[in-house]
Amino acid sequence: MGEHAFGQPLTRLEDDALLRGAGRFSDDRRLPNEARAVVLRSPHAHARIASLDATAAMRLPGVLAVLTGEDIAVDGPGPVISEINLPSFPKVRPPPGPVRKPEQPVLAQGRVRFVGEPVAMIVAETEDAARDAAEAIEIDYDVLPAVVDMSKAVSGDTAIWPEAPDNVAFEWHGGDPEATKAAFAKAAHVSRLTVVNNRISGAAVETRIALGVYDGRYTLTTGTQMPHGIKATLARMLKVEPGQVRVISEDVGGSFGLKNSLYVEHALVLWAAKRLGRPVRWVSDRAEAFSSDYAARDNLTTVELAMDADGRFLGLRVDTLAALGAYISPKGLTSPVNNSPAYAGVYRTPAIHVRVRGIFTNTVSTDVYRGAGRPEALYALERTVDAAARETGRDPIALRKLNLIQPSDLPLATPLGLNYDSGHFEQVLDRALAEARHKSYPARRDDSAVRGKLRGFGFAHLCERVAGGWSEGAELRIENGKATVYAGTMANGQGHHTFYAHLVAIKLGLKLEEIGFVQGDTDKIADGHGTGGSASLVLGGSALHGAIEEVIRKAKPQAAERLEAAEVDVEFDDGSFVVAGTDRRLPFSDLVKDLKVSGYHHFKPTNHTYPNGCHVAEVEIDPETGEIAIQRYLVVHDFGVILNPLLLKGQIDGGIAQGLGQALMERIVYGKDGQLLTGSLMDYQLPRAADFPPIDFVSCPTPAPSNPWGVKGCGEAGCAAAPPAVVNAVIDALQPYGVRHLDMPLTPEKVWRAMQGAR
Amino acid sequence: MYSFEYQKAGSVADAAKAATGEAKLVAGGMTLIPTLKLRLAQPSKLVDLGGLKDLVGIKAEGGGVTIGAMTTHAAVASSAEVKKAIPALAALAAGIGDPAVRNRGTIGGSVANNDPAADYPAACVALGATIVTSKRKITADDFFKGLFETALEEGEVITAISFPAPEKAAYMKFRNPASRYALVGVFVAKTKGGVRVAVTGAGEGGVFRKKSFEEALGKSFAGSALDGVKVDAKGLNSDIHASADYRAHLIKVMAKRAVDAAK
């Protein structure tokens, strides 16, 4: 064996620079003669722009340009367009109707539809000059009624778009409505639960930044997950060939989906840069982030679960209202529908029917956020299963066990079109209960009671589908005595450099410091999908596998020559070329300085991977205040083969922190008039390290059969499983008060109030 | 940030003279500087008290403590004199904001600003402190006048705050989960003159005394003495973080905990 292997806890190659302040974020790239842009945003949720006068602003010192919706017709970019079509899963009846996709102009034209909508971009010599000018722009708004509540929006009293009088952008069905109806007709019991999946913010530490340059070609520097996707969209908006646009992304300070899609500011800085012949920088402040970053989640879902007299699941019916915002963001149609197959969960539910309606509201658009629909589905499903168990007097564990998919069922085609290929769900559940010391739980509950606290035990069991929706490319170049990986993925904090180098080191026996890494420059990387959906190691890593194989194949003739053997007799084994049947070996590392070869592979998976796991939460409630303290959080998970347990744990911990944040703390609140009430971190609660106990993790792997490394992807499991696990635990603790359900976030007052109501 | 003139005060008299019209005094700047950065204030001039060494320091006097206006929260929290005379005051200072705020923010700045969710006003009122200014001495009961309003006149600068030592005291704070300011903070002090209870964070008009609690605790200084006392939600704040009802409930919970923890 070489120095490096799977399962090795390598520390991150990225950290030295980041910890020393030598990271390269978008705001670290400074160009000569830069101008600074500020975006003036709508203070109203819905209004007609009666008049806009920028003459006074233009006269202020240092002001270079004021761009408004009226200027678009002259030489401005095209609108932002929803890039996604609704998927057609098997047995979709009725087929999806047309989607009403209103276009969003890069600056408002005559009307604003949410607080924070860009109305003008001011470019000046300094930020202060641009802000002074923004304040000097005179705008008369005729305020219109606004609608922010989805249930009210569908009544159609206030239409945001004439083409959608009921504010419904689309209605989509998945699964088999007739079979589901037939299943419900046979049911001995139907459980019904309506849950809110609260609107939250990605709240990346690094706010969004765009630096535009025009020198005959457009160059945008911005933190994103998908440089190539942004490039393609920009080329269309700017009406140029894709070759005329370059997108550069270096270090990214968190994204979680919010920096996945294109934003109007990307196009605005390039437009301004071309007009002025100068680089133009725009940097979002925190308040702007809350009002203009694409928001996350925001669903209202009713689930019905039909069971027979023994508790076997017969059918599942789901009806979701999904808030899209006033406009449909580029990937805004993804989360509400694309991950609906997650409603199969780990259960043998034979018939499922999902109905989703996408709803316009006077709010900023929603878009993909860590998990992109899977966490929403899992939350609704696992809350309903818990409620069903309580309603029918069953133990939530026993009810799940009765319905779990067994290894003997695999491969299994689920009612929503997935092909589960691996996993041992019951083993995972049993292990989780054992590790969580479930048997001795009553003693802990009694101990809490002695201290005047309420204790609860809850869990959630998930099976995700990962990395099957697209393909990814990777190149490995050996030149100048060095190996360099060119990745189509784009890291935003996960540690991609570390895992790509690790894989090369394992296969080729090279030292980590000899392995370079390039990502995030569309001029240097020919094609790439980008990062999302827990897929980078699965898809990018597998593409690299093919690239390494090609490099070995191409290096073989030179190796054979050095080994003075015929090429047919030379094999590659554990980092060395060997002459078959002899002890003559040539380590690949010895050959590197003389090599100039490259391998490229584009990996297209034949199936998704199915990471699955069980998350257990134990909580204690202070009945006097309603405060929740998490006493224990344990994860038993099948992530397939584990490459680097440290990177994995980082993904698990971060995901769970975000999930617990959503469950207990985070929410974007708009007032009835559409004003944003959570416009800063003084009002939007983010989780803090001290809020949670250490998170315990046990690996219970089965290798993924659909990729060469056997890996399954780990980025989103935590934020999917943590909300139902912890909410189930809190509801368990509140059983003495007869509480059936509480909607996230479970703030102290909400918990306290539920206890008062029950008294 | 809008532009402004900057003046470093050489003496209290100098500062008092400069602090007129649209000029603003800046002590630790933990509230004012973020406000300026967000363009929410446009002072003509900032008069910086940072150089006035006379205003820094803690003196034990007559069983109590006198704290210079420019003394940081961190200094109060770690002061042996404060810990000895009024441990509840040291604990309160240790719980303000975060380490950066505690190392820059000052007691004079906090009291002069009178943020309705700040901690120090509750201590001043419950302990019966005296606010010493460049012109006079003002009792805490007379000093705090409502949201961000105080008895300070134009050109009047706080120089120190004197706290008499109580027999027993404690401060209990239920934090706003987002901002970590007091959603409800209750300072309870058993003094020679009787029990005083001050509530911060909850009232529409800023810090206030809870007379019904003082009466009940005057008869029996134990948390259970408050069991039968009703807290009216009238006059309490209601926002996305907590309704007036919940604040009313928390006032009692925090008061009981403070009484039981008082030392």
Strand and helix map with partners:
The complex is a heterodimer of chains A (759) and B (263).
Chain A: H1 15-19, E1 35-41, E2 47-53, H2 55-59, E3 63-68, H3 72-75, E4 111-112, E5 118-124, H4 127-136, E6 138-143, H5 150-153, E7 168-175, H6 177-185, E8 189-197, E9 209-214, E10 218-222, H7 227-238, E11 245-248, H8 264-276, E12 280-283, H9 286-292, E13 299-307, E14 313-325, H10 334-338, E15 351-360, H11 374-391, H12 396-403, E16 412-413, E17 419-420, H13 425-435, H14 441-450, E18 454-463, E19 472-479, E20 482-487, H15 496-508, E21 515-518, H16 536-563, E22 570-573, E23 576-579, E24 585-587, H17 588-591, E25 597-603, E26 612-621, E27 628-638, H18 645-664, E28 695-699, H19 717-733, H20 748-758
Parallel strand pairs in A: 1-12, 10-11, 14-15, 20-21, 27-28
Antiparallel strand pairs in A: 1-5, 2-4, 2-6, 3-5, 7-15, 8-13, 9-10, 9-12, 13-14, 16-17, 18-26, 19-20, 19-25, 22-23, 23-24, 26-27
Chain B: E1 5-8, H1 12-18, E2 23-26, H2 32-37, E3 45-48, E4 58-61, E5 64-68, H3 73-78, H4 80-85, H5 87-94, H6 99-104, H7 107-113, H8 120-127, E6 130-133, E7 137-139, H9 140-143, E8 144-146, E9 149-150, E10 158-163, E11 168-175, E12 182-191, E13 194-200, E14 208-209, H10 211-219, H11 244-261
Parallel strand pairs in B: 1-3, 2-3
Antiparallel strand pairs in B: 4-5, 5-10, 6-7, 6-10, 8-9, 11-12, 12-13, 13-14
